[in-house]
Specification:
The protein is an alpha+beta fold. About 55% of the residues lie in helices and about 20% in strands. It contains 2 helices and 3 strands, in the order ααβββ.
Amino acid sequence: MSGTVIKILILITLVVVIINDIGVVATGYYAADDKAHKVANAALADYRINTDINSAAAAAQEMARDQSVVLTGFQITEKLVRVSIKVPAKKTWIANRIDVLKPYISATDLVELPLR
């Protein structure tokens, strides 16, 4: 009887851990798009005010830091503001320990906004 209870508790624990890891990874991917848009909008707003690429890049970098992401690319063309970010890997219970799953823990995103 007690062996069955222990097996059920272990199974429930494993299911909870797996659901937690899936949730952490899924929210990271979902949040990447929102954070990338915030970084791009900060750069766009600064560029519209100052018309200075360096100032817009600094605004993007500051917003990326505020959003806890890494700014991996920044470009302003005649028509677009292009920003790419990387959301650092979140701590998970299982995925951090399995090498095959590590690439899926962090998320990246690219956003292009029109200047006008």
